[in-house]
């Protein structure tokens, strides 16, 4: 397993790149470049005519991309969302791509660097944006959103059963003092959580929910899946690694719907002559024992692969 000097241990490294079935002269997209672990492996399999486009919202990912691969003509990088990958492909005048990889969520450096404001373990400014130059920070949101909206986000995106209590506590606390630090929020939320689960920080679900909301992660995923499928050539593959059930449910549903085609109303006779648009490649894949022993992040990873027909 690669534990690179860029501070992120890539999950399902060999499995994801193998699933893409990289061809030497193919065109590929790593939609979640992060610190370039998967990209490095894809580049190893590409020949001189092959090309890889790395995309990431995070300006630090851009910096790593420049450091690691600026001397490699086969590699290009765009800072932005994978939800906009079709426009990047159009701008590059690529006729279509042979494979897209999405390794969802946040990278270890994003979580570990206190000043990014994702962590409930270390104190930092309450930010949580993958791209700190765009959109609303977590602090701006928790200080202005309505109590019902906060409660809904914690419930829907964190599956947090004490969402209402936590939202109430956040709104009460901000009347005394704005909430600007990660540990300040973690303490407010923890105090409103009456049942601490063993081995889990009581703010885990709330932080996850706010992060997903601030970064529009589920909206981006829905749009990113559509765009990825749209830019694939026939025979091209989409490989998605997700880290929590909401994402995996979306990926599974999306892939299933494409493979099965549009639902026909029950009262219509089934006409089975439409050619399939895609097929699933294998079953969902999880990390093996060796990887699990070395990387706790791999515990929740689920990978699914789709091939366009
Ligand atoms: C789990 S990390 C990827 C790690 C990478 N595979 C590696 O080996 O280094 C996820 C990365 O995706 C980025 N990201 C998440 N959602 C994104 C989106 N909608 N568009 C672009 N990048 C996104 C995050 O900023 C983060 O850097």
In terms of structural class, how would the helical and strand content be classed? alpha/beta
Oligomer: single chain
Report the average pLDDT across residues.
95
Total helix count? 13
- What is the β-strand count? 7
How are helices and strands ordered from N to C?
Answer: HEHEHEHEHHHHHHHEHEHE
What Rg is obtained from the alpha carbons, in whole angstroms?
A: 21 Å
Side by side, the strands of the main sheet go 3-2-1-4-5-7-6
What fraction of residues sit in β-strands? 5-15%
**What form results from the Cα inertia axes?**
globular
Bound molecules: S-adenosylmethionine
What is the CA-CA span between the terminal residues? Answer: 32 Å
Question: Which spans of ≥5 residues are poorly predicted at pLDDT below 50?
Answer: none
Helix content: 40-55%
Which tags fit this structure?
309 residues, alpha/beta, 7-stranded mixed sheet, 43% helix
Can you characterise this structure?
This protein has helices at 13-20, 37-45, 59-69, 85-92, 108-112, 138-144, 147-158, 163-176, 182-191, 204-214, 217-231, 245-260, 289-294, and strands spanning 27-30, 51-56, 75-79, 97-103, 232-242, 278-280, 302-308. With 309 residues, the protein is an alpha/beta fold. It has a seven-stranded mixed β-sheet with strand order 3-2-1-4-5-7-6, with helices on both faces. The longest helix has 16 residues, at 245-260. S-adenosylmethionine binds at residues 8, 10, 32, 34-38, 55-58, 61, 81-83, 103, 105-107, 130, 220.
């Amino acid at each position: 397993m690669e534990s690179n000097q860029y501070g992120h241990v890539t999950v399902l490294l060999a499995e994801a790149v193998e699933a893409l079935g990289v061809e030497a002269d193919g065109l590929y997209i790593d939609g979640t470049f992060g610190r370039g672990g998967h990209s490095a492996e894809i580049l190893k399999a590409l020949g001189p005519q092959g090309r890889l486009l790395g995309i990431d919202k995070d300006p630090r990912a851009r910096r790593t991309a420049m450091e690691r691969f600026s001397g490699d003509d086969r590699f290009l990088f765009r800072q932005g969302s994978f939800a906009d990958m079709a426009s990047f492909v159009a701008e590059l005048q690529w006729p279509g791509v042979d494979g897209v990889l999405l390794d969802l969520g946040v990278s270890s450096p994003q979580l570990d660097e206190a000043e990014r404001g994702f962590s409930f373990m270390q104190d930092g400014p309450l930010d949580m944006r993958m791209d700190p130059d765009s959109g609303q920070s977590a602090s701006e949101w928790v200080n202005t959103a309505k109590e019902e909206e906060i409660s809904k986000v914690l419930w829907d995106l964190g599956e947090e059963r004490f969402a209402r209590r936590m939202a109430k506590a956040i709104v009460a606390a901000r009347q005394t003092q704005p909430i600007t630090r990660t540990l300040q929020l973690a303490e407010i939320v923890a105090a409103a959580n009456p049942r601490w689960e063993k081995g889990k920080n009581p703010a885990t679900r709330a932080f996850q929910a706010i992060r997903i909301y601030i970064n529009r992660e589920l909206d981006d995923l829905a749009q990113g899946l559509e765009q990825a499928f749209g830019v694939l050539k026939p025979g091209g593959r989409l490989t998605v690694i997700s880290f929590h059930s909401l994402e995996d449910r979306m990926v599974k549903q999306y892939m299933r719907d494409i493979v099965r085609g549009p639902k026909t109303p029950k009262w219509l006779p089934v006409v089975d002559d439409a050619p399939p648009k895609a097929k699933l490649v294998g079953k969902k894949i999880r990390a093996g024992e060796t990887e699990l022993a070395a990387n706790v992040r791999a515990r929740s990873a689920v990978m699914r692969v789709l091939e366009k027909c």
